[in-house]
Amino acid sequence: MDVEEDVEIIAKTKRPGFVYFLGYGIMAPIARLVFRPRITGKENIPREGRVILASNHLSFIDSIVIPLTAPRRVQFLAKSTYFTGTGFKGWVSRQFFTSIGAVGVERGAGQAAQDALDAGKDILDADSAFAIYPEGTRSLDGRLYRGRTGVGWLALTTGAVVVPVGLIGTEEIMPVGSKMPRIRRISVKFGEPIDVSGHGTADSGRARRKATDEIMAAIHELTGQELAHSYNESPPTTVGQRVRRAIWWRERR
């Protein structure tokens, strides 16, 4: 299977528990009061059953905005370092990210990508909502990059409907490199649900590509971002990552 994600799952996937509901109950009203987000299309999110929230990605804060504005609990993947810290700071980090529905992952490629998608599949198989960024990583220039086909695979494998999400202005709240959020008003747009089953089955690369392109077109319609017409690649930060990426791309040719 041609999987184009670059994360490795390390935390056992499970449904949100008490900490999630406590955190949501406290943070959601505060966030709405302080940032006054313009939210449209909440009625487009099914209140039950499998649903994928596929969003553009502009800021770290996106993974907080989506769970706090959606009308049902949402889970997503987050870096493992948010869960593995020690001492009081590590405890605070774990509690916070658990409270917003995060599941810990490590960066990687190859089998790691499939492990991450399998974690998303487990969440959807439990009739839950799962948020994903088809671009893979944050857009640093504000353009909308080409979607990676993991989102198509998830939708075609699980039968989940896809709700496109358009985030506007989140990069103004927390620009890259900033430590504390700024108070800025943002817009969150939930589009109409998409059924991608008509494109074929998950074992078809063409079906995954077509499904992903349909999802990205819907996101673009919500955000109006300039299209990059290319993938948004995160630069490898270690020698090992550079070697693994080189081997992976050589095997794909």
From TrEMBL:
The chain crosses the membrane at residues 17-35. InterPro entries: Plipid/glycerol_acylTrfase. One of its GO terms (biological process) is phosphatidic acid biosynthetic process. GO terms for cellular component: plasma membrane. SUPFAM superfamilies: Glycerol-3-phosphate (1)-acyltransferase. Keywords: Acyltransferase, Membrane, Transferase, Transmembrane, Transmembrane helix. The keyword Transmembrane helix applies. Signal peptide: none annotated. Residues 51-170 form the Phospholipid/glycerol acyltransferase domain. GO terms for molecular function: 1-acylglycerol-3-phosphate O-acyltransferase activity. PANTHER family: 1-ACYL-SN-GLYCEROL-3-PHOSPHATE ACYLTRANSFERASE. This is 1-acyl-sn-glycerol-3-phosphate acyltransferase. It comes from Cryobacterium arcticum. The lineage of its organism: Bacteria, Bacillati, Actinomycetota, Actinomycetes, Micrococcales.
